[in-house]
Design goal:
Structural class of chain A: alpha/beta
Mean pLDDT of chain A: 94
Oligomer: homodimer
Radius of gyration of chain A: 27 Å
Shape of chain A: globular
Chain lengths: 513, 513
């Protein structure tokens, strides 16, 4: 694509065709300016097969708004729609509708609330709430889902991997396996929000204000060997050029017999010159076994503070297994397992950037209410699957914390409900009739509203947090999340509940349909 | 990101940090201008868990070259590198190296061969071969892999889904679950190359010259119901606005009791007015069962030519199972299973655009040779896993067709080998010593070289094929591929072999290391 084509592909026509055919239908029926509300939420946590998430980390919002800010129906976009033809050869989009698109269909006419990036979030809770003219809010759907689904998916995976690695340094290495240009930038950003400390991606690191991380590949050692030199020559050259950032990849020839001994030789030279070697990277073989032996060799040589970077198809389960194996095996070789665990750094590529095991978040954007005579009329889709029945109407989202300060449920309520007035709160299961909980006021330490105003009538009212602030939000939320919910395998299910009033409304709508 | 940030993130710094640290090391050692060759290949077919690919469809090349054409070290890029600091606070990239990057490190200095897009390709076969100054070829790695891995992955998945659907119309619907902006455009393009007929993505359809496809969502029906109308009102409104493109989504309320009967009422009105209704879409429930009953109802109402579009979490296995169920069950209801199968259209979203089951292709870019004194010196990485040992040196790639005209093997040979001169060809297994085949000349109908020159010293020598031409290439290759290799589950393994001379070289290098 040239840059003109890229503007066409990534501008306001970065949407599905049916958003535009529906918009024209609304226009034709006089419904296009009718005020409507759409909720964005996901239906289930990522399920990676052998394991499953118990929470997600919200991400993608600021970049969605960067897109919203730039996306408008340019003359080129309108003309590309004007030439579309139906089966009979007639213009699909009529001139009067295209005129309206060009002149009136601006995202500036929308108001949007959202849960901030970095917050821990759960299924069926509105994460983003869009108000505005029906046709305009409808057109936003595709791009909104595209921007938010992927970043939330990756931030969630990063958080899991970060937790599996006990909070040790986590590097995002996924660029070469990531799905094309825009994706990796967004994926790297989401990884940084969710749990990665740095990324190898140079451009996006600079844009986001982080140092990019990386040292060398096997090819560097191969070049020296092909030209008649040795692995040691390659390492020595690296140390000469980067004496204060010397981290050596030790598995090009043979990790234990060549790579680590050569690295130690080079580290000794560095030490004599007053530099502090950084460490080694292991990228193949049994990473648990090799890291134990690497640690022993580095300790014996007087380098107990050097890092050991692990890479090669890592994910949260692999890291967890490596640490379990180290716990069990390291003492046999005279290596302290906790000391070893503390010096590990994880470089995670493919499995992080693709959310391997579940490469898509099932986020949806559903019409929940339309205004009629200044009242909100709830909209509902009846489906055979009760989980898929959206919660109707204009809602509030609350997080309820128990007496320990731990989040015990997310509660969806009607807009006019005030929980300060009640002595107890009834939490209904979203679709199982007999399942509800009653919470006494004494057992509740806090009821926190989760949605914040981002944009009112096109004006951004929100100060975008820095990525460090999003990370703080994530850490705070994870500290207030039950340990069982954070479990990597078979997590405890967090409660997302409906208020009595919302539950009754939903039943009434289902009865009447 | 604003547009300046986007240029930074998607330009030449769309790479991994270690490409630049290695480039500086080569510069410092005087090796940066040394001519080198890198091969791009993938190691294994996508493995989706319960099923596995037996071939891949090559894609992504033209967009890689669009990127190469635009990517250069701008002043902004150089300055962003100049401010990088090492652990001791010193500049990581020295001024002389940055000067060289800015003035000399241009992709115009590379020559690139590749297998064209749309061709069927196999593991360990060089798909892209890059020659040129070591440091410059090294810097290209990340972006090359990023552009080619993802599109090849998606083209492959599209081909499988297309084949499972017996070549019926296939629509790509994945934008909302795709990984961000650039990705979906590339994913949609790859899907169109690999087997999708159209995509719902409006912008990229226009850019690539295809009509975008889509009709309406559940929300349209919900709007009418919320405002006091009915599903029938919604369908009638749709038919009024799109009389020649009337395809109705029938599962918002109840597919068999409401959706299809209402669609038929509207189709009857259209017929009376002289229009031909297009069909219905089923998006939930048991799609096999519902499509049989939908077919029966449409047939009974005199609409046997209307299409039935299936969507909702489809992939190649689901489609295969639906068709098997139809084969078995349709006759019971007086529906001809083949007629029904022929009127089905598949709308595939998430599972296509993410290559669900295996969301990354393991494509790599490996140094295979370096020039010294005008000779190529092969480079090799010794790894514990024999599959991971790259094939050394400067090579040719041939496809060998048997007497039936069916591809029997891809053969890698040394550059100076000419198979016209031999009476027989020995095909060696790439790493198993005793496994080889001898082919007599009489059993070979054709030996086709697969690599073509794309760029020589920065000049593009290649006429980019249209997507239709790439589809032709794919269809031709699939016709000449053994049926067993195309099997969806447990495919027969296609042979990728080494010539006797290349096999001997590889053994010699491994011995000497």
């Amino acid at each position: 694509m040239n840059s003109k084509e890229q503007r066409m592909a990534e501008g306001i026509l970065y949407t599905d065709q049916y958003q535009l055919t529906m918009a024209q239908l609304y226009y034709r029926m006089g419904l296009h300016e009718r005020v409507a509300q759409f909720d964005h939420f996901f239906r289930s946590y990522p399920d990676y097969g052998e394991h499953k998430a118990g929470y997600c980390v919200n991400a993608g919002l600021e970049w969605l708004f960067d897109w919203i800010d730039q996306a408008h129906f340019r003359k080129d976009d309108i003309e590309s729609l004007r030439i579309q033809r139906d089966s009979a050869g007639n213009q699909i989009f009529a001139d009067d509708f295209l005129e309206w698109l060009h002149n009136e269909a601006s995202f500036n006419r929308l108001s949007i609330q959202a849960i901030p990036e970095g917050r821990v979030v759960h299924p069926n809770v509105p994460l983003t709430v869009v108000h505005g003219p029906l046709a305009i809010a409808q057109i936003l759907e595709t791009s909104l889902l595209n921007h938010l689904n992927y970043q939330t998916l990756i931030a969630t995976k990063a958080s899991r991997i970060h937790n599996a690695g006990r909070g040790n340094l986590l590097l995002e290495f996924g660029l070469r396996r990531a799905p094309e240009t825009g994706a990796n930038a967004g994926g790297a950003r989401a990884a940084l929000i969710g749990g990665a400390d740095f990324t190898s991606n140079v451009g996006i690191s600079h844009v986001l204000g982080f140092p990019a991380k990386g040292t060398h590949a096997h090819s560097m050692v191969q070049v020296f060997i092909a030209l008649g030199g040795s692995e040691l020559d390659a390492f020595q050259a690296y140390a000469d050029v980067y004496p204060d950032d010397c981290l050596l990849l030790v598995d090009t020839v043979n990790t234990l017999e060549s790579g680590i001994p050569n690295a130690i030789k080079v580290f000794e030279v560095l030490r004599r010159k007053g530099h502090k070697p950084v460490g080694i990277r292991l990228d193949s073989g049994d990473l648990a076994y090799l890291s134990i032996h690497a640690a022993k060799m580095l300790n014996d040589a007087g380098f107990p503070d050097t890092s050991i970077v692990l890479s090669n198809q890592l994910d949260e389960l692999v890291i967890w297994q490596i640490l379990a194996q180290i716990e069990h095996e390291a003492p046999r070789y005279g290596v302290d397992p906790d000391e070893l665990a503390n010096r590990l750094i994880y470089g995670v590529g493919t499995n992080l950037i693709t959310s391997s095991g579940d490469p898509a978040l099932d986020g949806v954007y559903k019409l929940v209410a339309v205004q009629q005579n200044n009242n909100w009329v709830p909209a509902i889709k009846v489906s055979e699957n009760p989980i898929k029945i959206p919660n109707p109407g204009h809602k509030h989202v609350w997080r309820v914390y128990d007496e320990r300060g731990i989040a015990t449920a997310d509660l969806l309520s009607m807009e006019d409900e005030n929980f300060q007035e009640h002595d107890e709160i009834i939490l209904h299961h979203p679709y199982e009739h007999q399942s509800f909980r009653v919470l006494n006021k004494e057992t509740i330490s806090e009821i926190e509203p989760l949605l914040v105003d981002i944009m009112i009538d096109g004006e951004i009212l929100y100060d975008w947090p820095t990525i460090d602030e999003m990370r703080e939000a994530r850490k705070n939320d994870l500290e207030r999340l039950d340990t069982g919910v954070k479990r990597i395998i078979n997590p405890h299910i967090y409660h997302v509940s409906l208020s009595e009033k919302l539950w009754n409304l939903k039943q009434k709508l289902l009865m009447n349909l």
